[in-house]
Amino acid sequence: MAGGSSPSPAAAPVQVRCAGCRGVLAVGPGMTEFICPKCHMAQRLPPQLMPKPAASSSSSPPPKSPAKPAAPAPQQPRKGAPQAQGVDPTKIQLPCARCQAVLNVPHGLARFRCPQCGVDLAVDHAKLQNFLASSNNAAAAPAGSDPATQSPQAPFLPTLPPGVTQPLQLVAGGTIPMVLPTAQPPEEINEVAIDVEREEDEGGTVGETFTDYRPPKLSLGQSHPDPVVETSSLSAVQPPEPTYNMKIMDELDKTKALSCLQIETIVYACQRHLHHLPTGDRAGFFIGDGAGVGKGRTIAGLIWENWQQGRHKAVWVSVGSDLKYDARRDLDDVGATCVQVHPLNKLPYSKLDSKAIGIKNGVIFVTYSSLIASSERGRSRLQQLVQWCGHEFDGLLVFDECHKAKNLIPDAGSQPTRTGKAVLEIQEKLPEARVIYCSATGASEPRNLGYMVRLGLWGDGTSFQNFAQFLGALEKGGVGALELVAMDMKARGMYVCRTLSYKDADFDIVEAPLEERMMIMYRKAAEFWAELRLELLSACEFSAEEKSNSSQIWRLYWASHQRFFRHMCMSAKVPAVVRLAKEALAENKCVVIGLQSTGEARTEEAVTKYGVEMEDFVSGPRELLLKLVEENYPLPPKPDSFQQGEDKVTEIQRKRHSALDVSFKGRVRKVAKMVDVSDDDTDDYSPSDSDHESTESDEEFHMCQICNTEEEKSLLLHCSGCSRHVHPNCLTPPWTGMLTDDWSCYTCKMEEGEEEEQDAHVADFSKRYDSAVEKKQKILDIIRSLDLPNNPLDDIIDQLGGPDNVAEITGRRGMLVRASDGKGVIYQARNAKEVSMEMINMHEKKQFMEGNKLIAIISEAGSAGVSLHADRRAKNQRRRVHITLELPWSADRAIQQFGRTHRSNQTSAPQYRLLFTNLGGEKRFASIVAKRLESLGALTQGDRRAGPSLSAFNYDSNYGKKALTLMYRGIMEQDSFPVVPPGCSDNQASIEEFINEAKAALVSVGIIRDAVVCNGKDAGKLSGRIVDSDMHDVARFLNRLLGLAPNIQNKLFDLFTSILDVVLHNARIEGQLDSGIVDIKAKNVEMNESPKTVHTDSLSGASTVLFTFTIDRGVTWESAKAMLDERQKDDAGSSNDGFYESKREWMGRRHFTLAFEGSTEGMYKIIRPAIGEALREMPLTELKSKYRKVSSIDKVSKGWQEEYDASSKQCMHGSKCKIGSYCTVGRRLQEVNILGGLILPVWGTIEKALAKQIRQIHKRVRVVRLVTTNDNQRIVGLLIPNSAVESVLTGLKWVQDIDD
Asked: Are residues 395 and 433 in contact, defined by beta-carbon separation less than 8 angstroms?
């Protein structure tokens, strides 16, 4: 309206999150300072919500209404989220230089990281004092202002000086001081320098994974029959000089039974066995060769060498008794036909060298399970072995497949395995034994090195007093530290690790989408489990279960839940397995199908229940559900418990508590709280503490005649009729009435009315019991009616032609086969009449290897050490297609399973097909394997990039935990999501719909607890809580995820992985991502001076060496122009390829770059004059926002050359860089220091030196690899920042030049 006569519309309050308690506050219009009503913190609005100054002339009157607030911050992804956070006045408020978030900086803090965008920030305290002084002066009200219009102001709140529109600015990186906006112009921010610093912190590109292997210092024996490789990291380390002369070498030259690799292992193992550790024990050796390289024959060669040296006793510990046949074969192959192999499990427990048994020498073959066995009289196999060997025993003690001894040092809360303890004990009792640790997966994580005490990595004479210290250092150092351990062991001559080349093997991850019927089956099963959970909750309340019983039920429920859906995932892949198998057979290949569990337990339970003849194969999931409900559904006590007469009640109570260990030493008041069999909670008989006397006499204690617990007289009822003492709660029903002197127990009460009351109580219990039984029966009927899949193992064998076509190499004793008439199935033993059960797996293997059966199904239990490869000696030489129906629980087992079909002396390498369903939750199992594979590659191969990679599925990591917490906070509406949830657009309604769906799903699987439906303005919304321990429990999330309907399961999983990508990206930017071995790439790498020896190992003579290199990373103008011309000539580029200059100037000049499209559309490779090709490709949108294309070649040529020349001596921050000459950001010529050779002995010194560094990236232990330009010398070691070199050398105390 004209004239402004109408009142202005009321301004809406602003939502702000409190800086103290983080509660959401509504701040009235016009208020700039306020006090939180909850935590009482005085604070003010952040700058972006401060009212704008009124636009009026000095003569006009002051406005009557408050000025409109500034434009709100960009809308949050969730409705109702506060637009900003309040400002804590007890700290200094400074905006981040990069993201402009207002940070509350405590006084005195000089360096810190922005919690929002992660950039490093620094404060100059001298300039800060000036700022505070001007702030305090400005805190007084300006002259001439109207006090009535001023907002109430806390006296300690510093406000900005007049005319200052922006608070003090923090600057990213280095020690660049803060600058007062009013005193001097703001310091320029070099965006390109920030980008380059981020890229350098991310680490180098991945180089080649493997290098071909040949013994570097031995030229004995013939080549290995198959290509063998070593990781490039390990190949950079040289073993010690070989000095041992083998006695059997002449014989091997004639027979050619061992390859050069196997001979090298024997030489270094025998050489190592000549030494003793500082503890006095003989040093041991670790053979870490990959599966199929030929470790068995190497061990046989070691036994034969020691036999020729006069050591005629040996102990060979392995995983299965079947492998004794392989041991015999290997010994025969190397010529040791006279050496007897004695399987210990076939021998009595008496002395092995007694007249009755008569074993004086040879090889005792013992399994790990036998090692921990003992007789009924208490004599153990371990004692038997030690007695046979004798304390002075100096023969071979071989731990084959030694990963079986892992978990000697278990995770917190669990116990060491008996096997691990037995392996440790036999080593302690035989200090002179020549120990060999032998496994492709011996150290899948550092914790599992605990039993390898003879390697001398910790203890006397090392940097680590005990294994706990060693473990702590490795876990702190991450994967890079694990890689160093492998390299250290090789350098000291105690470790070899080669693997068969996977060059010809194919690895495919095959996704098997759920078929329509399976999708419906899965959805209904998920709905049933959610309903079953509610039924069990109700039943537990109804039956008044004890807390311990209730928690046991829930443990079983969730364990069965996981097993059930894991089984469903396996069943969902059966059609894909059958299809892949038939395709392979059609291509004239043969098939190996790997799984972990056979479902034998469920099958045997079904056979016991239904008999050996059934209509169809057993459904494992159905039997599992039936067992869970039948055995664990909580029922009230049976009505026959309440028979007339106290005798029956007493008998029941005594039976119930007969297991209690009641001690009467002293006066045990009440040993255990007795079960209240009634669900009536009205028992208010609870004497106060004041009723207890401080001194008691024996007369004041009596025994309850029902539960046999000694108790104070005042707490027991005393029957005036039969004089018995009882607890009120021990009676059935419990006594809840008043205590009187003439109280009588139920037996003594003869009054008719009281008897009727008891009868009514019993009738009530009977009704409740019958109702619960009826409910239980209904649930069982529903389970029987559910459409659920059959046991996958039986199903696959049936669909692929039955046992006549499929060789089964598993641990199960019986199987279901289709009847000859095709109607129904019959349970039968796996072995035929002519084959014993012990030999059935060997028989089935033979059938497969001879080509009588072209499909083999293997389980972990049946296939350890078994060879199923396309052996040149076998009749069946078809190419193997290895399908993993079920990924093993750990990477140790995955590698073992892969090694069944990829071995030495094969005509062709296998094709691996790793099957996953399209259910997000199933990737949980892959994540466990991936986690182990990462460590496994690091330790057993020295480079975690070796072998098949499943790292894309590694979710159970610290980053995964952080991502999960962020996701849960978003779902619980405590924070906004870092990404838009899948299937949602930016509009608020779709996000709220997703949140509601996600909440309902998480409630149904027990992650959100105490769920209630809200009323009022949030009517219909779910609220609840997620306990702290669940907030970062990735394993539980992925487990429970399996029990959701496929649609929401995949949505939640996609959200989780999207957030994880963001978390990983941020970690990479901050330099926190553990990238293992990093390659340093440069145009030119030259060694500056002779390497310096800084430490020498007394046992092996290996040394720690400091190398100094000068690297040139730059790209000349001529090279850059040639690269672009080449690309344009081939017409391979896009229209956006070309030279670009930065839009922002820095110190009067712009940065130049060459960009051309990379392997992915829309992503561009960036080449800079100073550092060459950037590590990450840049999206086109980012490229165009920061740079503009330049067409003038002269302009680019000049700018490029200037930057190239300037970067030879100066970093990108320019001459004013506060880190000075130590700064390497964007510097073309750099000095790089690498500590190579032995690292573990000097670990402590290095850690201390790195801890003093300023930049976060320099504080981390970083393993790098580089190759010199002139002589292709490969160096792997720890990167020592220039600023830390002096500190390291001082710590190591002395430096000596290496003799040329």
From this structure: yes
pLDDT digits (tens, 9 = 90+) for 597-606: 788 878 888 8
SS3 (DSSP) at 381: helix
**What's the pLDDT tens digit per position in 303-322?**
999 999 999 999 999 988 87
The Cα–Cα gap between 1003 and 994 comes to: 14
For residue 414, with 0-12 CB atoms within 10 Å meaning exposed, 13-18 middle and 19 or more buried, which class applies? Answer: exposed
Tokens of 885: 């129906």
Tokens of 1176: 């990450």
User: What angle in degrees, to the nearest 10, is found between the helix axes of 1046-1069 and 958-971?
Assistant: 120
By C-alpha distance, which of 1277, 865, 1242, 898 is closest to 1108? Answer: 1277
Nearest to 440 by CA among 544, 292, 571: 292
- Minimal CA–CA distance to 299: which of 366, 397, 382? 397
Rounded to the nearest 10°, the torsion over CA 863, 869, 872, 873 is: 20
- SS3 percent helix, strand, coil of the chain, rounded to 5, is 40, 15, 45
Residue where the block lists tokens 């809406």: 12
Closest CA to 225 of 255, 262, 269: 262
Contact (Cβ atoms closer than 8 angstroms) between residue 1002 and residue 1008: yes
Q: Which pLDDT value is given to residue 1296?
A: 38
The pTM for the full model equals 0.64
**Contact present, 1280 and 1091 (Cβ < 8 Å):** no
Q: What is the CA radius of gyration of the chain?
A: 38
Per-residue model confidence as pLDDT tens digits over 1003-1052: 888 888 877 777 766 666 777 888 888 888 887 888 888 888 888 888 89
Cβ distance 1186 to 1241 under 8 Å? no
Q: Is the peptide bond before 621 cis (omega within 30 degrees of 0)?
A: no
Least confident of 410-419, 875-884, 987-996: 410-419
Cα 1066 from Cα 440, distance rounded (Å) = 35
Tokens, residue 1067: 């970690």
Distance CA(581)–CA(800), nearest Å, equals 8
